[in-house]
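Board notes (copied after class):
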Amino acid sequence: MKSRLIKGNVTTSGFIAIFISCFFAEGALGESDSLTPEFFLILPIWAIGVLLMWRFVSKEKLENTSYFKIILSNLLLWLTIPIGLMFAFQLI
């Protein structure tokens, strides 16, 4: 159950990060003629969060890890998406 929770969260947040970065990179809703590649910065920052999650999972056995720690690490993974957006907006 715990590994399914982590794997599902990583894949779901990954798809959301890809969709958000592609949406913002294509431009606003009315501006389809410009491409801003700065928004693809979301993906490497999200990947750093995944690497930290992988380190957390490989460091401790999941059987001994509480659900609170797993949910907290999942929330920290989701926080990498807005952090990547903040960096991308600063580069524009």
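Comment from the instructor: Helices lie at 2-25, 42-59, 67-91. The mean pLDDT is 85.
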